[in-house]
Amino acid sequence: MASNVNPTVRRRRLGQELRRLRELKGMTAEEVAERLLVSQSKISRLENGRRSISQRDVRDLCGVYEVEDQRIVDSLMQMAKDSRQQGWWHAFGDIPYSVYIGLETDAESLRVYEPQIITGLLQTRAYAEAIIRGGSPESSEQDNDKRVEVRLRRQSRITAEKDPLRLWVVLDEASLHRVVGSRQVMREQLEHVMELSRLPHITVQVLPFEVGAHAGINGQYSILEFADAADSSVVYIEGVTSDLYLEKPHDVQKYTVMYEHLRAQSLNVDQSRQLVERIAKEYAR
Questions:
Q1: By C-alpha distance, which of 83, 115, 101 is closest to 236?
Q2: pLDDT in tens, 37-93
Q3: Can you point out the beta strands (E) in 121-258?
């Protein structure tokens, strides 16, 4: 795969363009589905970028929308071709959250609230191994090893010398006290968090216990933002059997405001680092 082609992002952009053409034509997804003798859910999945789209699909849709400019058709066909290529993560087989990895790979910035554990991009290998094995007790050792490698590979976005991912993490204090693996694993993990938090593009804040009820009480979520104005921001909520992706401006705005409240309720950067350091030292005893 060409290094500058991200299939997930290509699908999103293509889906957005197809939705725009449908709306310009004044048609509903149901009407398009009836014309093409397919399900309405297929049209919806193509437009939201959750499934690959063939060049034949693009040709058929452009026919329904009466797109006369062949340059537009050719451009959309090329995007469809690019969207069917594989990202680096496909080499690891079936990854449940592959759509998210594709988005994260292309994102310019990422804001994360994590109430239970140290977020994946900040995890050490030992911590990641313990978390993945503990969270997937029925998975095979081979599958768990694969997930560990994918998680560590994702971290190249925050260690890249050129255009690293701008990362802002709010960790609930509970994630610092939950002993994952062993006390030694936890000490090394918290020391790793402190080290990464000193990088100019990474910010870590801790939401202390004494805050009580707060804006993130309903659970973990992430907000991904992209450099290209054509790519709308995405709120990602991880689930056990399926994940949720929110892209409507109203939804994104609501979660963004919630995140600002979390940041305001959290310890500042220096206070957070001091708390992480204190707890790390306790694990060393």
A1: 101
A2: 888 888 888 887 767 788 888 888 999 899 888 888 888 888 887 767 666 666 666
A3: 166-172, 202-207, 221-225, 234-237, 244-246
pTM for the full model?
Answer: 0.77
Query: Torsion-angle region of residue 158: left (phi > 0), alpha (psi -120 to 50) or beta?
Result: alpha
Ramachandran assignment for 87, one of left (phi > 0), alpha (psi -120 to 50 degrees), beta (any other): beta
Pairwise CA distance, residues 165 & 145, whole Å: 25
DSSP 27-81: --HHHHHHHHTS-HHHHHHHHHTSS---HHHHHHHHHHTT---HHHHHHHHHHHH
Q: Tokens 């990464």 belong to which residue?
A: 196
The answer to whether the CB of 254 falls within 8 A of the CB of 247 is no
d(CA 22, CA 31) in angstroms, rounded, equals 10
What gap in Å lies between CA 168 and CA 222, rounded to an integer? 10
CB 29 within 8 A of CB 43: yes
- What count of other Cβ atoms lies within 10 Å of the Cβ of residue 26? 7
- List Cβ neighbours of 241 (8 Å cut-off, separation of 6 or more): none
Q: Cα separation of 253 and 37, whole Å?
A: 36
Inter-axis angle of helices 29-36 and 55-64, nearest 10: 110
Mark out the alpha helices in 183-248 (DSSP H runs): 183-197
pLDDT tens for residues 193-211?
Answer: 999 999 999 999 999 999 9
Distance (Å, whole) CA 109 – CA 100: 14
